[in-house]
Write a structure and sequence with these properties.
- This protein has one domain.
- By secondary structure, it is mainly alpha-helical.
- It starts with 5 loop residues before the first helix and ends with a helix.
- It contains ten helices and two strands, in the order H-H-H-H-H-H-H-E-E-H-H-H.
- It has a two-stranded antiparallel sheet.
C-alpha cells in the first residue's frame, strides 16, 4: 500500500470534520438560521481569500499555517476548496429541502475524501486521469452508508444521487467538485422526488 502524503490526509480530515455542517443543520437549525450562518461564514471566507490573494503579508501568514495543504492551483489567485465547500453548502441549503441538502453535503464531505484515500491506497483500475474504479466505488458506498439513516428520501433516489455524485467526482477536473457535486446531486434527487 503506497504512502498517502500527510498534506492529503490533512485535507481529507478537514472534509470529514466538516460533516458537522450538515449534522448541525439537520438536528439543530432551521433553514433560515442555517442560511444566515452560512452566508456569514461564506462572506468571511471570501474576505480571507481576497486578503490572501491580494496582500502579500496575508498570503505569507496563510501559507505559514495552511500552505502545505493548499493545492498548487489554489495558491495562484484561485479560491481554495474550503471556500467552494462553504459556498456549495450555502447553495444547497438555500435551494433545497433540508433532507436533500443534508444528503448532498454528506456525499461530498464523506464520499469525496473516501474516494481519494481508497483510490490512492488501493486503486488499480484507472478510469479518468488519476481517478480509479476503486475510488469511485468507495465514493458511492461511503455516500450510501453515511446517508442511510436519513428519512424522507427513498433508497433508490439516494443511490442515483450517490452514483451521479461519484461520476461527477470522476470528471470535474479543475472545476471545484465541492461546489458542483452537492449542487447537481441535490438537484437530481429533488427532481426524482
Amino acid at each position: 500500500m503506497p504512502d498517502i502524503p500527510r498534506s492529503e490526509l490533512a485535507r481529507k480530515a478537514i472534509h470529514y470534520f466538516s460533516v458537522l455542517i450538515p449534522l448541525v443543520y439537520y438536528f439543530f437549525l432551521g433553514k433560515n438560521e442555517a442560511v444566515i450562518i452560512l452566508v456569514i461564514l461564506s462572506i468571511g471566507m471570501l474576505i480571507i481569500e481576497v486578503l490572501r490573494i491580494k496582500i502579500p503579508a496575508c498570503r505569507n501568514l496563510y501559507n505559514r499555517y495552511f500552505g502545505d495543504i493548499t493545492r498548487p492551483h489554489e495558491h495562484a489567485n484561485h479560491l481554495t476548496g474550503a471556500t467552494y465547500l462553504m459556498l456549495g453548502s450555502l447553495l444547497v441549503v438555500y435551494l433545497f429541502p433540508k433532507v436533500i441538502a443534508v444528503i448532498a453535503m454528506l456525499f461530498i464531505l464523506v464520499g469525496d475524501p473516501t474516494a481519494c484515500l481508497i483510490g490512492m491506497a488501493f486503486g488499480k483500475i484507472r478510469l479518468f486521469r488519476s481517478k480509479t474504479l476503486e475510488g469511485t466505488l468507495a465514493f458511492i458506498a461511503a455516500s450510501l452508508l453515511v446517508t442511510w439513516w436519513i428519512p424522507g428520501v427513498a433508497l433508490h433516489v439516494k443511490l442515483i444521487g450517490a452514483v451521479l455524485a461519484g461520476g461527477l467526482e470522476l470528471i470535474t477536473g479543475r472545476l471545484d467538485d465541492n461546489l458542483i457535486i452537492p449542487t447537481i446531486s441535490a438537484l437530481i434527487m429533488f427532481i426524482l422526488i
